[in-house]
Design brief:
CATH class: Mainly Beta
Distance between the termini: 47 Å
Structural class: mainly beta
CATH topology: Pectate Lyase C-like
Number of strands: 30
CATH superfamily: Single-stranded right-handed beta-helix, Pectin lyase-like
Largest sheet: 19 strands, parallel
Number of helices: 3
Radius of gyration: 22 Å
Length: 389
């Protein structure tokens, strides 16, 4: 919350006053949009859009657009918000997002309400992964933020998104905290938080358990801090993927610290495609705990999830200045450190210090693997002998 001072004028806009019903059946999206538009043109310094408790509001895809007149736009979500049950209810809408906020500065969304993406109908579609119909197949992200500045998300509970639960694009000065995100481990593409093209993002004190990356930090992102996250199930905390389709992608100045990953498919991962260009650099993983994780530490510069038509290219993303420190825990696989770097450029200045990972299998020896990785290690078991000691 921002303390605006005792003399600051504020105005509240209750969605019920604009015709919302909250019975979980009536389409309340027109009422929400009318309330938002009224709040957005208010002359107050602070506009408060309230979603009252003890009700469930059914919303079809809607975009809440700015810029807005107030310095702060505050959305208080006390009640629940639910997506349509059927995919046919998205007919006529763009299917890349369900609830979108665009070009809003000073946006704060807080509360104890549940945002239910009703995603199960999307997950079972056989067309998932079909590039010719990707938008229909992959479904909408539950919450999308595009070109938002001074954004605060706090206290929300998001469940069962059709695709990513929170997608953050081209935004800056963002704080996401005390969020609870959950979807089944078998739900495809249900990333917890996707960050792309964004800077100065702070994600902290949250639980994320989904069927894909808990947090994915993608192209154009910098100055990202991820702290005190509990992740699992899911695919861990990832940088990338970067460089798909020959793109020039960059990520730098990322810190992931004081996090626990439990039962995830990977732990902390950097993944890049062959044939791209750009870099991933100045990335720190510190004070990470693994509990029964597959592939706890991995740099994969040969990322190709379908394993179909994978190519070795002469160009690639340059990976450098990567630090792993005070990391410990258990792995269900015996290859606990995997540094598979680009065959042409390699990875440079990879540093491991006080890293201790063991197998969950009694008497099973854990080991590390390297290809074209360069750097140093100390106080690390298993030893990473391809690096300098």
């Amino acid at each position: 919350m921002v303390n605006c001072g005792a003399s600051t004028a504020s105005t509240s806009f209750d969605v019920l006053s604009y015709g919302a019903v909250g019975d979980g059946k009536t389409d309340d999206s027109p009422a929400f949009l009318e309330a938002w538009n009224a709040a957005c043109i208010s002359s107050s310094k602070l506009s408060i859009l309230t979603v009252p408790a003890k009700k469930t509001f059914l919303l079809k895809p809607v975009t809440f657009s700015g810029p807005c007149q107030p310095e702060y736009m505050y959305v208080l979500v006390s009640g629940n918000i639910a997506a349509p049950n059927s995919m046919t209810d998205y007919s006529g809408y763009q299917t890349n997002s369900w609830l979108a906020f665009s070009n809003v500065s000073g946006l704060m969304i807080t509360g104890t309400g549940i945002i239910d993406g009703k995603g199960s109908g999307w997950w079972s579609q056989p067309c998932i992964g079909n590039a010719s119909n990707a938008a229909t197949c992959t479904g909408p992200a539950a919450l999308t933020f595009y070109r938002c500045t001074r954004l605060v998300l706090n206290g929300l509970r998001l469940v069962n998104s059709p695709r990513s639960h929170i997608a953050l694009t081209s935004s800056q000065f963002v704080t996401i905290s005390n969020i609870h995100i959950s979807a089944p481990a078998t739900s495809p593409n249900t990333d917890g938080i996707d960050i792309s093209g964004s800077t100065h993002v702070y994600v902290r004190d949250s639980f994320i358990g989904t069927g894909d990356d808990c947090i994915a930090i993608s192209a154009g992102s910098s100055h990202i801090n991820v702290t005190r996250i509990t992740c699992g199930p899911g695919h861990g905390i990832s940088i990338g993927s970067l460089g798909a389709h020959g793109e020039n992608d960059t990520v730098e100045n990322v810190t992931v610290q004081n996090c626990t990953l439990k039962g995830t498919m990977t732990g902390v991962r950097i993944k890049t495609w062959q044939g791209g260009s750009g870099y991933a650099r100045k990335i720190t993983f510190n004070k990470i705990r693994f509990i029964r994780v597959d592939n706890p530490i991995i740099i994969d510069q040969y990322y190709c999830p379908t394993q179909i038509g994978c190519k070795n290219e002469t160009s690639g993303i340059r990976v450098s200045d990567i630090s792993y420190s005070v990391i410990y825990g258990t792995s269900v696989t015996d290859k606990v450190i995997n540094l598979s770097c680009d065959q042409n450029f390699g990875c440079s200045n990879i540093v491991l210090d006080h890293v201790y990972i063991t197998s969950t299998v009694p008497n099973k020896k854990a080991y590390s693997y390297c290809f074209n990785a360069h750097g140093k290690y100390s106080h690390t078991r298993p030893a990473v002998t391809c690096l300098l000691k």
